[in-house]
Amino acid sequence: MSNQSPFGGRTARAFPTLPQGETIASFETYAEAQSAVDALAKAEFPVKELAIVGTGLTSVERITGKLTWGRAAGAGALSGAWFGTFLGLLFFIFAPSPSSVGILLSAVLIGAGFGMIFSVVSYSVNRRRRDFTSVAQVLATRYSIVAEAAHVERARQVLHVTDVPEPAFPAPEASPRARATSAPSAAPSSPAPAAAGSDTPTAADADAASEGDAAVDDGAAAGEQPQGLTYGEALDAARRAERERRQSGGA
């Protein structure tokens, strides 16, 4: 959703981005980081160039107590009483009358009653799934103050920081494609000549071996059955060969 300007134009929407720069100091709590920013502001430092970055975010839900019927009814009555007070004040301010005080008290009581009823009904529905009250928080393990590189030295002098803290954002790793592109390509190596007396086969040995294999294949093909026959044809050919061998043996 864009914000409309009074002149009918649309202002550019600022998308959330990570702050750029170097880490001035790092603290364990947000209160310490806030105190450091206050100290820089008192030293006339351009605080608009600063950013507090929390790293190691963790979700924490603190249990505040057990939820009972009385506690649910009391919380509902209190919230309803506040709403009734708001409505009663509206009548008291914009429609003053001799009975405005009575209307205000009636609005408070009616709001407390309806709030108590709604809270008790809600608790009766969810009491077996959630019988406690809690407060959810998102905390960080470290809080770093980040600024542009041109202001880092002055900020560290004001805060009396001597040690250079670790960067708030880890350096991005190069993609596998970028690493493959940046790596020098290895030149194809030419085959080394065979040394005298070594076991490496030469071209003449390879030709002789191929001729020997061809002769073996021809001899094996002479005793094999003709290729391209079906199972029945091969069986008939084997029977005829067996019959001819027997007849030649009997003669």
TrEMBL record:
Keywords: Membrane, Transmembrane, Transmembrane helix. Residues 22-111 form the General stress protein 17M-like domain. The keyword Methyltransferase does not apply. The chain crosses the membrane at residues 72-95, 101-121. Residues 171-207 have a biased composition (Low complexity). Residues 236-251 have a biased composition (Basic and acidic residues). InterPro entries: GSP17M-like_dom. It holds the Pfam family YflT. Residues 167-251 are annotated as: Disordered. This is General stress protein 17M-like domain-containing protein. It comes from Agromyces salentinus. The lineage of its organism: Bacteria, Bacillati, Actinomycetota, Actinomycetes, Micrococcales.
